[in-house]
Design goal:
Blueprint lengths: L1 H17 L7 E9 L3 E8 L6 E10 L6 E8 L6 E3 L7 E3 L11 E9 L5 E8 L4 E10 L1
Antiparallel strand pairs: 1-9, 2-8, 3-7, 3-9, 4-5, 4-8, 6-7
């Protein structure tokens, strides 16, 4: 009986640790954007009902220059996801929705999605020349 109780407690703890939690900053992905290529840097699955989703992208220059553009896409999968911008949605981009990097040490891009649906959000990066950026994506659900 004790073993069953301990096993049940461990399962509950494991489920709690892996669940999305409201009001806690979570690091979703740490990746690199290298050279002149395009790639998905982070996938943010939304399960449940939330008032808002706040996304922070921190791009840090690794090479001698830092060039590139980030895009937010939403959909059920990478292949069907559509670009989200301030023209086609109520998503707020801070500073703006082009999210173009400049040649600074570290740059931050912030996105606020109100009433995110049960979907996935993807952070796409489009690199520039031989530049390399370290990209960290964090989220906060409320």
């Amino acid at each position: 009986m004790k073993k069953l109780f301990i096993l049940l407690a461990l399962v509950i703890v494991a489920m709690t640790v892996n669940a999305q939690s409201r009001g806690r900053v979570q690091t979703i992905a740490t990746d690199s954007l290298k050279g002149n290529n395009s790639s998905v840097l982070a996938t943010i699955p939304i399960t449940g009902s939330y008032e808002s989703l706040f996304i922070e992208i921190a791009a840090t220059r690794v090479s001698t220059a830092a060039g590139g553009v980030f895009y937010l896409h939403a959909g059920l999968s990478e292949t069907t996801a559509q670009e989200v911008n301030s023209v086609n949605s109520s998503v707020e981009f801070m500073v703006n929705d082009t999210m173009t990097t400049t040649d600074v040490a570290t740059q931050y891009f912030n996105i606020l999605v109100t009433n995110p649906g049960s979907s996935k959000y993807f952070i796409y990066g489009d690199g520039d020349a031989n530049d390399t950026l370290s990209v960290v994506t964090k989220i906060l659900l409320k």
